[in-house]
Amino acid sequence: MSRAVLLSIFLFFTTINLNADFHEGKKLFIEKCSSCHKEYISFKKLKENFFERNNTLLNLTIPTENMLAWAIMESSKKIGDPNDNEMRKIEIEDYLKTYLANPDLNDSICDSHVLKYYKKKEPMEISDEESELLAQYFMGYKDDRLKNNPKPVKILSKDYNEKEILEKAKKEGKEIIVFATSQTCYFCKKMKKEVLSLTEVEEAINEDFIFLEVDIDFVNLPFGLKKYFKGMTPTFFFLTTDGQLLHTYPGAWVKDDFLQILKENL
């Protein structure tokens, strides 16, 4: 048997084991942690809660599951080297065991601004196997969420329901983007292929916005946007969760400029 075949078999079973460990870690988190740590809440809504409303919107006393995953994997206090997964997993395991055994907010990796809202956690003992499974869960959390959530783009049909869209926006705490396009628009197709389909852009949209694509040749623009539309495609309309127009951006954009537009509308 060739080395290439052996390598393929090794990678195949390694992937299976990693996936199994992640799902076992997820199961463990649900059984031991989900009674305290709430499920996913968008970071836009979390920012509003902590930085604008002094935690009066959500009244969180413990971080949500996505806040934990972000703190461990992506925050300024993240654990381990992102370029060394094996060592990073060991460091995350060690941190989880040590912190849970003796919880101390002064040793927390959570954002310092939100710590004042959290209550002291009771000590909790976990085994080496449990710490390993939880580490696998947090390390795979973001990829799993992206994989199991639909693409952020919703193409509106003629029978769309504005009320349902607004209810979804309010429930998820997300603003709305309306993308005015047409089948004959060259720059719309170019931007969809070269910008909107990029993982980084999809993640940014999916995190904080509901994205609606409207072919103006066949479907009317929602939320009374027709009176603001100057006939140029593409045009991007940014609206509040109540459907009120915030900003209009006519024309096509490169990745960095479009990401900046998204940030400006948070």
TrEMBL record:
Molecular function (GO) terms for this protein are: electron transfer activity; heme binding; metal ion binding
Q: Which UniProt keywords apply?
A: Heme, Iron, Metal-binding, Signal
Which domain of life does the protein's organism represent? Answer: Bacteria
Q: Which Pfam families does this entry report, sorted A to Z?
A: Thioredoxin_2
Q: InterPro entries attached here?
A: Cyt_c-like_dom, Cyt_c-like_dom_sf, Thioredoxin-like_fold, Thioredoxin-like_sf, Thioredoxin_domain
* SUPFAM superfamilies referenced in this protein's UniProt entry, alphabetically: Cytochrome c (SSF46626), Thioredoxin-like (SSF52833)
- Residue ranges annotated for the Thioredoxin domain, each copy included: 145-266
**Record has Heme as a keyword:** yes
Per the UniProt entry, the signal peptide is 1-20
Q: Cytochrome c domain spans which residues?
A: 20-142
Tell whether Transit peptide is among the UniProt keywords.
no
Instruction: Provide the protein name.
Output: Thioredoxin family protein
